[in-house]
Structure formats: C-alpha cells, structure tokens
Amino acid sequence: MDNKAIANILYETADLLEIDGQDSFRIRSYRNAAQAIENHSQSIKELIAEPKQVLAIPGIGKSMLRNLQELFTDGKLSVQAELLAKYHPSMLQLLKIQGLGPKTIALIWSAYKVSDVDGVEKLAREGKIRELPRMGEKHEAKLLKAIEDYRRISGRFLIDAGETEAEKLAEYLEKFPGIDKITPAGSLRRGRETVGDLDILVTGKACTTEEGRQKAIAYVAQYPPLMDVIASGDNKISFHLRNGMQVDVRLLPPESFGAAMQYFTGSKAHNVALRQRALKMGYTLNEYSLATLEGEKPVAGKTEEEIYAKLKLDYIPPEMRENLGELDLAKDHALPTLITQDDLQGDVHMHTVETDGKNTIEEMAEAAKARGYKYMAITDHSKNLAFANGLDDKRAVEHIARIRAVGKQMEGITIFAGIEVDILADGDLDLSDDVLAQMDIVIASVHSVFNQEPAKMTERLLKAIENPNTSLIGHPTGRIQLRRDAYGFDMHAILTAAAKHKVAMELNSYPDRLDLNDVHLRQAKQRGVKIVINTDSHHTSHMEKIRYGILQARRAWLTKDDVLNTLPPQKFAKAMKHAW
Ligand code: DGT
Ligand code: CA
Ligand code: CA
Ligand code: ZN
Fold first, then answer.
1. Residues 32-47: pLDDT tens digits?
2. Atom of ligand 1 nearest to the CA of 190
3. For the chain, how many structural domains are there in total?
C-alpha cells in the first residue's frame, strides 16, 4: 500500500463520515491526515514500524496512527468498513461523480435510501432530485450529465491502476494452498494505455480437481476489496472491486495454462488470425490447447512458446499482438527487437523543488543514479506556469549554475541542465533565446490556451519546432487520459517538420499522459522522427513509471535505434542539438 492508496482510503472515510453526519472536527482530521500522507516524501509503509516518525508528520495524531497501524495489519480500516456496511460499498462510486459531494449524497440517502449510481440516475430521471431541499431542475440536469460522463470514462482504468489491482489480488491469491502461478492476461499484459477489465489466470494443484476449484473460488469471493460477484462457475469467477473495476479470475490445469495465456492475452483480432493459421495447418486452437483437427489430439498447451512454435511462428511479444502484421513478420523470422527498459541510458524530463517538484536536484540525481542511468536532466518549468512557480530568465540561469555545480560533485552520472519551457499562445518560447542557448536540453511544451483552432495550434507547434533552441516537444498532444482530450492539430505536419529540423518527440511515460501514444509513435517512426522516453518525474518515486512508456514504445514496434535516450551521454547531448 503506497501513500496515495492510504490517502485515498482516508479521503473516502472523511466523505463517508460527512454523509453520516459526524462532527466536522473528526471529518477534518481525516482529510488533513490524507493530505499530509499524500504529500509526504517517505513511504508510510516503511515508517509504520517507527510510530514516533509517523507522529512527527503534521496532521497525524495518536488516533490516526492507530488507524494506520490497523490498515497495515488488517488491510482495512474498521471505521470505513462499518460505514460501508451501513451505506453499501456502492457509495464510494457515487462519490466519484463530479459535483456530487457528501452533502448531496446524504440528502439523497435520507430521503430515498439510495446509495448507488443506477439508483441515483433513476431518481434524477423521475424528477425526484429536484424535490430535495436546495435542489432544482438545473441540479438534476447537471447530475444526469455528470453521471453520463462518469459512465463514459469509468468503464476503463489507467494502466497503473490495473497493474496495482492485479498485484494486490495476486498477493491474496498466493496465500491459497495449491495455487502457484498467477498471471494477468488481457489488455494489461499487452500494455494497453487503459484497461477495461482485469483477466487473471491462475494455475496449480488446486485447479486440477472440481473440489479444489470450488474451494479456490470460494476463497476469491472472500477477497476484502470485492464489492459484488457478477458470475461464478466451475473454473471462473467474475466480480467488481469497490472502485468499480471488473475482474475475471480463471482457474486452469497446468497443461492448459499456455493455451489460456495465449487466448486470454488476445487481442481478439490477433487470436482470430492465429486460429485461421492453425486451421490451415490442420489444427484447432482454443483456450485449452492446440490440437489436431482429426482426433483432437493435443499437440501443445502448456506454454505459449510451444504453441507459436508448433504454428511455425517466432514468439510474438504480447505488446505486438494486435493483428497489425506481426504474424507475417513472425513467419519470416523478421520480428523487430523491441526496445527494453535496460536499453535506456537516461531519463531527461524532471522537476525539482525549484518549481513544482518535491525533491532537490541532488535527490533526483541520486535516484536516477540508483536506477543505473548514465545521465539525467533537470528540466523545471518556465514563468508562464505561474502556479508552478516557473523560472524567469534570471532564475533559469541561476538554476543552470546550481545544476552544473551538483553535476561536478557527483560521480557516476552526468547531469544535464535543461528546461521545460512553455510554448506561448503565439508559438514563441517563454524564455529569451540566449538563456535557452545555454541549456543542454530544451523541452518545449504547451501548458496553456489549449482551445485554439487546430490550424492555429499547428502553426504554434511548428513555430516551436523551428526555434533552433528546441531539442524536443514535451507531451506533444496534451491529452490527459480519461479527463482531457488532445488539443486539435495536424499531426502529419508536425511530424514532418520534426523530422526535417531534427527535433525529437517525447514519449511521456506518466500513466495519465502516455503522450505520444502508440498510434502516434508508429506514425513518428514511419517519418523518421526520433523519440525520447521520459517520466516527467516530480518526485524520486515517479522514475519507475518509465515502464509504462516502454510498454507503449513496444506497442509501437520501436527498437533501440528509434529512441535517442538509448545513446551514450556524449552522443545524446549532440542529439539534443539536432545532430544525429
Ligand atoms: P479490455 O478488457 O477491454 O481492456 O480488453 P481485453 O483485450 O482485455 O479484452 P477482454 O477482457 O474482453 O478479453 C480478454 C481476451 O480474451 C481478449 O483480448 C481476447 C480473448 N477473447 C475475448 N473474447 C474473445 C472472442 O470472442 N474471440 C476470441 N478469439 N478471443 C476472445
Ligand atoms: Ca480485459
Ligand atoms: Ca475480460
Ligand atoms: Zn509539462
């Protein structure tokens, strides 16, 4: 459980206490603790063994400490569990609807005893919300719109949320005797930027008998974060987690595990093409095995590798399984060698306490070094981003000096001095040319005026690319997954200009950005545009998010050669000055 997860539970509990009409002092103590934990730079999980250190965090008193201790020993908070039992866990989803706060939810509950999204939607459609005190037709219409938005995005979750839930569930499943292998399949294994539901495959001795499976399924049904069971059968159980995510758990005998992995990893389009190939070769392929058409004699099924091999194909990495030509390449032994995390020699988009980051230059550099990077760059914001305390020319120059001084002292890693400079509405960069020219790396990004006409936005980005100081364009489309669409512009024109001026495009690995995405990365590669994979870390703990970027790069079939931060330090520095 990381700090963010703990903070979420405390925020939820505060909301539930408010719905329950408890005193404001108690509610505030939960919100304050949540905020303090969210922003605390050390992990509570590690601190919890030292109660004094936890108590030293402002906003955390003795009773909150007891809550945290309970959270780590029992995996839940009894205060929250009791409230959820009283109001039903579906209340947590209601709280996620924009503009529907604890006060209104409490009103709805006291009048109608309804605590779920479907129920509230029905009330609104029947005109029953407007009858509540201080509510009117306008509120009702707004609420319906908010429910619609919630439905539209709540069907999918960010890849890191999917991964976290899969890991938590695996930890729980591992404890069941006779289960010894637990693997996520589906879109999560293919590294898609968002996941619909989780597909978890389980095998072991317990999965080989009906009795064993029934016991295992009963165990899964006791999983604490489970909200409701959707369906349960002989070798499968589907359920919702309290956050609304659907999970399908399937129990397989070991001899079918590879076939099931192949089938449930998908994608559906890849599977259809693979099955056609199997049929042509005289086999049938399903989730249990690859078998001869005649006599149905299994010839492979224990591992995915043996299935692809029997079909005379090289092993296809999950990220490539979208039926975009990968089968032909596998047949001709021509699959690309996809980039891996180990190929990266540096991460060059990071913020520090000087603007809106949480750690110092030294702390970020130490963390980058600990990851084994040969180089890294500090790229704080420029003044246009006032709420982030962005740098003006003078502070930017002072900051470079500080970055270079730290670089001199540290051994084993090169620290580049850079900036993430705003691309202003007219395409000018936010700092003067001679300051930008002193930088090793200039990341130019759009952070404001997102709603320009596409033609205007294209012009704006072209101007930034043509600026001789620009090394790369940061998070080029500006989308925030499940929240904000990309701003409109002519991607083709931008990529063509980037190739011409040798300006790189960023693949920002932050899970809610993943920008450029897999589709755009493929277009960039086709036009010879080079990519830089970064994390945009605002905290040392963010650097591990690089793996989500790597997954997208692999989905776009990128190799080491397509990505500039696989180069050694000197060559990389030249590439940031348009020489590659
Ligand atoms: P998602 O959950 O929307 O993010 O995407 P997936 O790919 O995880 O899709 P899901 O959960 O519906 O199914 C998991 C995998 O099971 C899918 O990638 C391929 C396989 N599968 C599901 N339905 C079919 C089907 O009708 N035919 C075939 N051949 N495979 C299927
Ligand atoms: Ca799925
Ligand atoms: Ca599924
Ligand atoms: Zn940015």
1. 999 999 888 889 999 9
2. 7
3. 4
